[in-house]
Amino acid sequence: NYDLALETLDRLEAERSDPHEEDIESRRLEVRVLLNTRRRDDEALERVEDILDDFPDHERALKLKTVALLRIGEIDEAYEMIRAAAKLATGKDLEAERADDEVGEEVEVAQTGEVQAADEFDAQLDLEGRERDSYWCAVRVTFKRESDEFEEAARIAEACLADDPTSTALLNEAVRLFSDLGRHDRALELLVEAKRAMPYDRDIRKGLVAYFSALGRFDEAEAMLRQDLEAVAENPQDAPPLHEATLWADLGGFLLDQERFEDGIEALDEVRRILGQQIAPDLLFRQADAMIRIGRYDDALEIADTTSIEVHKPMLRGRVAFERGDYATAAEELDQAALIWPDNARVRYYLARAAEGLGDFDRAIAEYRQAVRADSALSAARERLIKLHLAENRVRQAGTIIQFVSPRQQAKPSTALRVLEIEYQVRVGEEPNLGIPPSLDLPLDELRIQAIDALARGLQRMSGEAAAESVLAALQAQTPPAQQNILMRRRVDLLLDLGNPEAAVALGREALEKRRVNWLADLALGRALVRANQDLEEAEQRLQRVVAARPDEPEVHTGLGELAMARDDLAGAARHLDRALELDPGDWQAMRARLEVFDKAGESEEALALLRHFVRRDAPYDARGALELARRLPDDSETQHEERIQLTRQALRFGAGEDAAELLRSLAPGPAEAA
Q1: DSSP assignment of 54-66, as one string?
Q2: Which terminus of the chain, N or C, has fewer Cβ atoms within 10 Å?
Q3: What is the pLDDT of residues 74-118, one digit of tens each?
Q4: pTM for this structure?
Q5: Contact status, residue 285 vs residue 252, Cβ threshold 8 Å
């Protein structure tokens, strides 16, 4: 609250008895607050120049003036301020090496618009000797890199690292530079050399783990951590106190980041063994979170009962209640957590999920928006809110969330968000951008499939299945042969949705005639044959080939489940459809087929339980599920009657159409007219 801070400073100035001009700390603080408001840069510059008139060689004031100059675009003068500050700090003239940063990262702050407090500057004034020289070396490297003078930046970095190869500030900047240049081997070499020189430095070790991970070399990162643990076990007397616990904590965190929850929990158990009650509460929270992810709810609740951090108690209890499907309790617990920690994005995210489970989508939207404001890097909240808006046909609102840029935090869009953007672009009539860059977490072929799926969804929602199929057919004719089966597969799905399995089979056969045979062609033709009830032996052969190549493909298990149903093999159908829903819990085709299996087996209660979970948690925006649940629920009490009404309204909200409107009129004639 910068305005309140300024008011408080003004009041303190008015009340003081000693001369304000001599209190340089208060004056400097005022400049920092003015800069943080983002709208009073000129005033900040004026105030800091007044300080320098009284204290010409004050290093902190020189740095603040640098920031102010950068913010108003006076780049050349800012460079001179940096040179002056560096010379004052080191006693050396950096000559024309015009470093660009209010110490380290503040230049990026000024250029990108990310406001950061000046506390880091103040801390740097305590540096002395070689460490201070290395610090200003890092500043010079930053400027050259930001100016795209990469070779000069590399020259400076190498020269400075020769004098001080373990400086964290310099090492971080050099690694970033060589990463930008694609010289990953050199970046790793620097980190390895630094770790060899300072084997117990946690920052260097974590930097090396992070770099291995960024390159997808997870095995090497884990091997390094385990080798360090083995070295401590062999020579415990050589390690500093608590070093073993720190290594186990780093290994546990790494494993949890890889979603190896059992292994990560075991590593953190070692930390608890060594430290006992002295273990950091944040580590306990991470361990409890991992326990929740793998269903060890009672163990997580035990940690909630014993943790010393008050807000962690309702956070963990709320998570457990959510996972157990008790959305009312989850909302109650998480509300308590939000009172203590109102801008915690994860709390807001799970509050939104609990609200969805209760059918309160307006509350869910509000909580998702709050989560995005609190932490724009929490991609799950933004992605889910976009899906919600797209499902309720509020396309412009979805676009607002897609295009939101946090003034507090720069966040790189996730691959999933870029895929959702394709659907949005189609639905507002824009040319969709299908050229999403690949990422480590999603291979290029899978990315192409998801992009076409988003394109098909957008076309279907905008113009219907028939028009979408026609557009995809035209696009397929212009697509390279290697990618045509991706479009063909979606065309087959659309034809099946249109109730035309014969045309879907013909389209699959066409791919075979043109020798475009791969798992996508086998999957599309196999499913089409099952739905058309033709050549079931061939369908099975094709689907089994897909299973052998891609055992975790949800759609092939749905196809095999439908094939088993066609043969009256209810046990086989249940097995495959359960697997499909395990892999993709929100797949309506698999859910619809699974309900049919339950019905044939006379298991109506089991069908209701699974469908309720689908609607309340896995796919609350799918109108088909909500409408089906409203139809299936008994109407034996006022509570059940109200739930049926709420579900029908939910189905209407997400596009169920006249079928839902007719049901609502029968359940509540008055409100149905208003709906």
Answers
A1: H-TT-HHHHHHHH
A2: N
A3: 766 766 776 666 666 656 554 433 333 333 333 333 333 333 434
A4: 0.78
A5: no
